[in-house]
Amino acid sequence: MVRKPKMKHRGYPFVLAVAALILSCSLLNTVGPTLNCSDPTSTATACANGIIATCSNGTATYRTCSDSSACSAAWQVPSAPRCSQNEAVTCPSATLACPVPGGSSLETQCAQVQTDPQNCGTCGNACPSGSACLLGACACAAGAELCSGACVDTASDERNCGKCGTTCTDYGTSCVSGKCACQHGQTDCSGSCTDTSTDTSNCGTCGNSCQPNQSCINGSCGCPAGQTYCVSTTGGTGCMDTSTDPGNCGTCGNLCNVGSSSCAAGQCVCPQGQTICHLSCGNICTSTPPCSESLCG
Q1: Beta strands 220-222 and 215-217: pairing type?
Q2: Can you tell me the distance from the alpha carbon of 199 to that of 188, in angstroms, rounded to the nearest whole number?
Q3: CA 168 → CA 65, 159, 195, 207, 209, distances in Å?
Q4: Is pLDDT above 60 for 42?
Q5: Is the pTM of this model over 0.70?
Q6: Given CA atoms 8, 10, 16, 17 in this order, what sign does their dihedral have?
Q7: Taking a C-beta distance cutoff of 8 angstroms, is the pair 143, 125 a contact?
C-alpha cells in the first residue's frame, strides 16, 4: 500500500504571524504605557520606557523613541510627550504650549488656558492674587470685584466703594455696605465729615456757625465756664470775663475809665490811694468842698 505524502497546512504561516503580533503587542504593553482608548474622541497620551502611546479614533498607537530615557528627561512635557527636546510639542486640544516660568526658551508646558491662573486665556496672562481663571478669564471670588488688577471687596473698600474707582478717602468717610458714609459720631456736612458736637462752623447741625470767640459745646454755641458772650460797641464782641474785663465790667458794655481804673470782681476800681471822681480816678480829697473840676478844695 502506497502512502500519500503529507501536505503542509497552508494556514500555518498566518497563525505564526498572528502569534508573533500578539506576542509583540503583549511585550509592548508590558514595557510601554497602557491607555484606555475606549472613548473614540479621546486624545490621551502617555510615555514610559521610551515608548509614547496616543489614543486616536478609539485605538492606541505606539511610537518607540531611540532614547529609552526620553520619558523621564527634565525637558519632557508629561501632557504632550516627545522623543527629543528639539521635537515640537503637540499639546492636546483645549491646551496651549506655553513657556515654563523661569525655564529656558526650549522648556514648554501644555497649559489648560481655560483654568490655569498663570496662563488664563492665553500664555503668560497671570490672574491677580486672590482670583481664579474661569473659562479663560480671570475672576474674583464671590463678594469681590476685579479693580485695577486686584480683587477687592467693594462693600468695604474705601478706594472702590460700591464699584471700582469710587473713593471715600478724599472726604474723610469710610465705606459701609458699598456706600460712602461718615464714621460713627460724625455727620456729612457739604461733603466733609465733622463732629457737630464740637465744630464751631457746624454746631449741632450743618451750617450753624457760632459767633466769634464762641465755642461749640455739646452741639450748642456758648462761652467757656466763667465767661459771658457780649456784643458791645465799647467793650468788643465775644466771650468776656465780666469779673475782670474793664470794657464789660460786671455786665456787658460797662466800660471802666480807660487808663485809670480797672475791673475787679465785676467792679470798676481805682489804683490804691485814688478814688473815682467824675468818672476818673484821682487823689482822695480831705478839704471841703472835696472835689471840684478835678481839684480838691
Answers
A1: antiparallel
A2: 12
A3: 65, 6, 17, 22, 26
A4: yes
A5: no
A6: positive
A7: no
